Amino acid sequence: MIIFRLIGESFRFAFDALRQNKLRTMLSLLAITIGIFVIIFVFSGVDTFRGKLQASVDKLGSNTIYIQKWPWSFGDNYPWWKYANRPEPSIRDFETLRERMENADGITFEISTGNRTIKYRSGSVEGISVSAASQDFNKTWNFELQSGRYFTDNESTNGTPVCLIGAEIAEGLFGSDEPVGKQVQILGRRVTVIGVFVKEGEDMLGTSLDKSVNIPINFAKGILDIQNERYNPQITVRGSENVSLEEVESELKGVMRSIHRLRPNQEDDFALNKTTILSNQLNKMFDVVNIAGWVIGGFSILVGGFSIANIMFVSVKERTNIIGIQKSLGAKRYFILLQFIFEAISLCILGGILGLLLVFLLAMAIGAITDFHIILGVDNIVLGIGISVVIGTISGFWPAYSASRLDPVEAIRS
């Protein structure tokens, strides 16, 4: 009960100081507020980016590997000349992989071409992407259909002119009408719509199907040169659920080297890309941003700590006679010490709450102006309050210690 009473008195003294010296206290709290605001805003933004990135990775599949000509690597020493002469993934590679791979739930050969136009009667939608894939596309890609159905085996094998379209395309061409069963024109051919993808919205990896048309790869053979580099041919492999990604990658690498008849001392002439490569590169960038947030916010908090210490020294000076009376009535040194430390903590928590409020308001403003919604998580709120408590304890200790060491007689005389 004494501790609770002590905390209550400390809060009361803190708010008395704030009420009596509003300008002085608010200017001193400003640095704490700015410091907490910078750190928590950076952390909240990074956490939101990471969450959206992870959602994009989950949509692609954390156990998915892409066989491509070019690797997904970054840096100044990117040896592009080494990869320029590599062959593109071929239909032969795809068919052989289907026969030999044991730890795969699905394998697809895919191509894509962008900036195309789809037409229906007098209406059209421009700037769409057209992708062609083999039958297992529904096993290597996570998607849902809001209406219609997926390709049948016969449609994929025979190259039937059918397609799946994105939700934005369906809205642009058909409005409120049902698209399934309608014939659209794409790549100079008439194609029947058999399904519509559920609307997804843009994600961080740009993998939305909203403005995409998907056709069978055997149908695309009669329209496009599917081995041409301009159409970005790739083979997508979804590993079995009970098998680790490393094991799937190891088997896939061995099979691909066997298909291409590479000797043991020869380098791979293909790239095995994973979504974890992108997320790891972005995590490094986020770590740098976090450090920058700590550095910028840390300087502000350091200045704020000195300001709080200054306030507490002034507070001790103003209440010296009260401290003398308390000690003459039997108050222990720890009681005086904790009283001023709790007061410093109270002031810092107030500054921290103001900083968190600024983060919340700015996040709401950004969400209202753009489609990017920054989430102020509970962990970051706890972190902000925790930093405030630590700074309050450190900056209030020495003034509190000096107050606890005052001689009661001399203190009452002052």
Automatic annotation (TrEMBL):
Membrane topology: Multi-pass membrane protein
Domain MacB-like periplasmic core: 25-253
MF terms (GO), sorted A to Z: transmembrane transporter activity
Membrane-spanning intervals of the chain: 27-46, 291-313, 334-366, 372-398
Organism taxonomic ancestry: Bacteria, Pseudomonadati, Bacteroidota, Sphingobacteriia, Sphingobacteriales
Species per Swiss-Prot/TrEMBL record: Pedobacter jejuensis
The organism's place on the tree of life at top rank: Bacteria
Family: Belongs to the ABC-4 integral membrane protein family.
Compartment(s): Cell membrane
Identification of the protein by name: ABC transporter permease
InterPro entries in alphabetical order: ABC3_permease_C, MacB_PCD, Macrolide_Exporter_MacB
CC terms in the record's Gene Ontology section: plasma membrane
Keywords: Cell membrane, Membrane, Transmembrane, Transmembrane helix
Domain ABC3 transporter permease C-terminal residue range list: 295-408
Main subcellular location: membrane
